[in-house]
C-alpha cells in the first residue's frame, strides 16, 4: 500500500481508540495496519494524547511491557459532567413528564444513544476505582445506560431478568421485596452469566428505596460474585436511608408535585454512603 501520511495515521488511530474505550491496542497492531515503525507510531500516540488532553476529551494511556500497548480512557471533566447533568435535570423537569402516581417518564432519554454514551462515561470515570469485570442491571429500562457503561469500561454486561427463560439454561432465582411498595417480586440470573469471584458493578436508571438494587446484590452473591459498587442515574431524596449502601447517584429527585406540575430534580457529584 502507499505510504500513509502522519495526519492520516493520527486520524485513523484516534478513531480506533475512541471507538473502543479502555481496549488495549498493541503498537504492533497499528504498525502493521499503517506499515510504519513502532517509533513512528509512538510519536503519533503522543500527538493524539496531547491533543485530546488539551481539549479535555479524554486520556490516552500507554501500558509498558510485552503485553502492553495504548488505550483511550474517556474522562469527562468536572465542568463537562456538571453541564450534562444540568441539561438532563432540565429535561427531566418538564411538566409533561409526570405520570399518574407520582412517577417520572424517562424512557426517551434513556434510549437516546448519544446521551447514554456520555452518562456511561461519567459512571466509568467516577467508578473506575471499583475495578469491575462485569456490569449488572435489571431489565429493561436500565439496559441502555448499563450497556454504555459496560462499553466505557470495555467489559461485559449481564442482565437480570424478572423471571427465568428457557433459553438461559440453568438459572438462580430469588424473591425480593421492593423497598417502596413492599411487594414481593422475582428476579433470576443464568448461572453461566457470572463466574464465581467476579467483580460486579450494578448500574440502574432509578432508585427509590433500593429494593431492586438490594435484590441484585443478593442474587449476585448467590452465584458467588462480589459487588464492588452501585451507580444510578436518578435516586429519590426520600427515603434517605436506602436498602443499599455506598451508591453513586448522578441526579437527586427531591419532589414531584402532580398538582402544580413542578419537578425538583438536581445534579449531585458525590457518592452516597
From TrEMBL:
Alphabetic keyword roster: DNA-binding, Transcription, Transcription regulation
Domain of life: Bacteria
Pfam families registered for this protein in UniProt: Pribosyltran (PF00156), PuR_N (PF09182)
GO biological process, one term: negative regulation of DNA-templated transcription
Domain Phosphoribosyltransferase: 124-239
Claim: Transcription is one of the keywords in the record: yes
Entry's Gene Ontology molecular function annotations: DNA binding
Domain Bacterial purine repressor N-terminal: 5-74
InterPro entries listed in its UniProt record: PRTase-like (IPR029057), PRTase_dom (IPR000836), Pur/Pyrimidine_PRTase (IPR050118), PuR_N (IPR015265), PurR_Bsub (IPR010078), WH-like_DNA-bd_sf (IPR036388), WH_DNA-bd_sf (IPR036390)
Family statement drawn from the similarity comment of this UniProt entry: Belongs to the purine/pyrimidine phosphoribosyltransferase family. PurR subfamily.
NCBIfam families in alphabetical order: purR_Bsub
Subunit architecture: Homodimer.
Protein name: Pur operon repressor
Source organism: Methylomusa anaerophila
Name of the encoding gene: purR
Amino acid at each position: 500500500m502507499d505510504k500513509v501520511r502522519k495526519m492520516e495515521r493520527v486520524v485513523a488511530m484516534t478513531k480506533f481508540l475512541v471507538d473502543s474505550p479502555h481496549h488495549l491496542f498493541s503498537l504492533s497492531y497499528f504498525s502493521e495496519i499503517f506499515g510504519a515503525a513502532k517509533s513512528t507510531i509512538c510519536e503519533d500516540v503522543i500527538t493524539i494524547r496531547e491533543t485530546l488532553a488539551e481539549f479535555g476529551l479524554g486520556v490516552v494511556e500507554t501500558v509498558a511491557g510485552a503485553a502492553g500497548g495504548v488505550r483511550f480512557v474517556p474522562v469527562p471533566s468536572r465542568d463537562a459532567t456538571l453541564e450534562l447533568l444540568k441539561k438532563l435535570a432540565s429535561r427531566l423537569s418538564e411538566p409533561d413528564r409526570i405520570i399518574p402516581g407520582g412517577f417520572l417518564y424517562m424512557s426517551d432519554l434513556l434510549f437516546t444513544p448519544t446521551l447514554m454514551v456520555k452518562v456511561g462515561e461519567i459512571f466509568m470515570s467516577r467508578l473506575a476505582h471499583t475495578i469491575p469485570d462485569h456490569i449488572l442491571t435489571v431489565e429493561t429500562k436500565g439496559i441502555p445506560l448499563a450497556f454504555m457503561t459496560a462499553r466505557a469500561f470495555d467489559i461485559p454486561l449481564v442482565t437480570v431478568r424478572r423471571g427465568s427463560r428457557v433459553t438461559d439454561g440453568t438459572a438462580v432465582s430469588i424473591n425480593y421485596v421492593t423497598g417502596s411498595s413492599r411487594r414481593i417480586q422475582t428476579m433470576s440470573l443464568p448461572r453461566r452469566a457470572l463466574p464465581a469471584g467476579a467483580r460486579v458493578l450494578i448500574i440502574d436508571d432509578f432508585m427509590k428505596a433500593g429494593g431492586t438494587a438490594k435484590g441484585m446484590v443478593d442474587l449476585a452473591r448467590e452465584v458467588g460474585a462480589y459487588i464492588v459498587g452501585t451507580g444510578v442515574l436518578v435516586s429519590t431524596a426520600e427515603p434517605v436511608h436506602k436498602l443499599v449502601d455506598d451508591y453513586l447517584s448522578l441526579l437527586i429527585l427531591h419532589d414531584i408535585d402532580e398538582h402544580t406540575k413542578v419537578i425538583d430534580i438536581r445534579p449531585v457529584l458525590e457518592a452516597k454512603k
